[in-house]
Write a sequence for this structure.
């Protein structure tokens, strides 16, 4: 009998798992509420589209937003590493570049981009795009985009 199907444990295999020992602890109502509060904070801090931790970002999501694969996005960031793009309290330089690419690719409003990238306001998106664009003007950005094959609504 196999314990895995399609790289997942079967129900029978899960049912056969047993702990080595059981440790009983008492939790007060306050302890449980504290645990829920910590989990809530942790979940609220987790970003849906996190361009700083590419392991948490699906390649398909990256492509749909920016027009680049994760590898291409990393390559672009390496090419842009000499620029003066700085992190702000609300976003990283990687998020700023992703905002600009998403704006160019999708043409959506800054308000929608603020929601997608979990930024505080459309003004913060506008600032991120403007600072990124002004830095990119100093290099041959358009040929980079052409070489990487970014297509609008593609």
């Amino acid at each position: 009998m196999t314990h895995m199907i399609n790289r997942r444990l079967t129900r029978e295999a899960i049912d056969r798992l047993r702990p080595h020992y059981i440790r009983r602890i008492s939790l007060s109502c306050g302890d449980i509420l504290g645990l829920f509060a910590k989990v809530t904070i942790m979940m609220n801090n987790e970003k849906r589209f996190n361009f700083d931790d590419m392991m948490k970002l699906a390649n398909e999501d990256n492509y749909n937003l920016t027009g680049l694969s994760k590898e291409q996005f990393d390559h672009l960031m390496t090419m842009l590493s000499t620029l003066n793009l700085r992190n702000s309290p609300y976003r990283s330089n990687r998020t700023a570049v992703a905002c600009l690419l998403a704006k160019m690719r999708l043409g959506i409003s800054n308000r929608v981009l603020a929601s997608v990238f979990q930024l505080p306001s459309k003004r913060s998106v506008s600032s991120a795009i403007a600072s990124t664009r002004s830095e990119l003007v100093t290099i041959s950005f358009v040929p980079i985009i052409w070489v990487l094959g970014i297509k609008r609504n593609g």
Q: What stands out?
A: Residues 41 and 108 are 29 Å apart (CA to CA). Confidence is low (pLDDT under 50) at residues 146-150. Helices lie at 11-16, 29-45, 59-66, 70-79, 93-106, 110-116, 122-136, 141-148.
